[in-house]
Amino acid sequence: MIQLYTTSLIIICLAVVTPALADISTDESFESTSNVVNATSPANIPKVPKKKKLAQKLQKLVEGFYQGDNLEAFWTSEPDMYSTLLSKHLIELFENNRKQHDDLFLGFDPFVNGQDALIKDLVVYPVQVNGLNATVRASFKNFDHEITLIYSFVWEGSVWKLDEMVSISGGYRWLLSDVLINP
Questions:
Q1: Which residues lie below 8 Å from residue 166, measured CB to CB, with a gap of 6+?
Q2: CA separation, residue 105 to residues 36, 86, 147 (Å)
Q3: Which of 33, 57, 87, 95 has the fewest Cβ atoms within 10 Å of its own Cβ atom?
């Protein structure tokens, strides 16, 4: 297996991802989680995205990962380029991985679960929302291999951020955080 040594991290085409993330974080997608209003401190009422709008937007975001030219992996050494997509937790893991190996050591593109991509038969399943966490499952064929990935998002800084990825099919199953800690 050819190991890929890169100067940083996967980025999905920012022309698709950044607008989708910005759209997810708009004020119209919020609702109060409490019916009790404290008039002295309204900022203490937590806001979470409305499930229906969130589900549609996160589903479109994941579908966007696989649209047109977005199938190609985008790599960058600039943390601000991927901070719009990834959670603080995942960014820290990527940064620690890069420091340990003098370069990001990741032998595959986790978005396609391989080094090359020929994506067919993409299915993005309904989003599961649980408070400030959401998961999206995507299945597709990469060449002749059946792939199922689960994307976990966390509500962070008034926007949804990718916090974990899991491969649950095929011969090579992985949890992205484990791969980054133990390449």
A1: 149, 150, 152, 173, 174, 175, 176
A2: 49, 18, 22
A3: 33
Render pLDDT for 120-162 as a digit per residue (tens, 0 to 9): 999 999 999 998 999 999 999 999 999 999 999 999 988 889 9
Q: Which of 172, 160, 57, 61 is nearest to 109 (CA)?
A: 172
**End-to-end distance of the chain based on CA atoms, in angstroms?**
13
62-84 residue pLDDT tens: 998 888 765 555 444 455 657 78
H/E run at residue 115: none
Domain, as residue range, for 77: 5-181
Name 166's bridge partners. Answer: 150, 175
Give CA separation, 51 vs 14, 23, 58, in Å: 24, 14, 10
Burial class, 153, CB count within 10 angstroms (exposed 0-12 / middle 13-18 / buried 19+): buried
